[in-house]
Amino acid sequence: MPDGYWFMLVGLVSFAAMGVIHKLGDRYSCSALNISLFTMATSCVLSLVYAAISQPASLSSWHPRVPLIALPFGASAAAALWLFQHGLRYGRIATSWLLINLSAAVPTGLSVLVYHEPLSLRKLGVLLLIVISLLLLWWDRKQDRGKGDRSGSETLSGPVAGAD
Q1: More exposed terminus of the chain, fewer Cβ within 10 Å: N or C?
Q2: If 0-12 CB within 10 Å is exposed, 13-18 middle and 19+ buried, where does residue 87 land?
Q3: Distance between CA atoms of 75 and 66, rounded to whole angstroms?
């Protein structure tokens, strides 16, 4: 099996574990900011250890532009993680996680617009499937809200119950 598949599998398991741990933090009513802080600190330490073991020369000689890329990337990752953890209290984890995965459409679209990458038939198909997925999520959410409204009106007593 090529090395790329191992990275993909470990990444998949890691993302799945991260989702479960996020939900666990939500169940224990942990502060979203603290979870994000410790997550980012742990990832920083693990990244440094990995770089020190696998490529020690990378820690002593790096291009000055690296912080210009890494700092906004780290800030974006930290903000996304904090907002995701904070948003779990208001929605379902399955929906939240699905939206995060579907957000891959943003860099794909931007790469076509900003870097003028060719829009292949495969990319176009994936982007269309993402739009369809978002529409189905919206429709499912609308159905859930409709069920909640009807069940709430049936329990009301008095002359205005169910009146529009």
Answers
A1: C
A2: middle
A3: 14
Structure tokens at 106: 């943003």
Domain ranges of the chain: 1-58+65-90, 104-152
CB distance 84 to 40 below 8 Å: no
Residue 162 half-sphere exposure toward CB, CA atoms < 13 A: 6
* For helices 93-102 and 121-154, angle between their N-to-C axes, nearest 10 degrees: 160
pTM strictly above 0.90: no
- Per the document, the length of the chain is 164
Q: Please write the tens of the pLDDT for every residue from 30-88.
A: 888 888 888 888 889 999 999 999 988 888 888 889 889 999 998 998 888 888 878 77
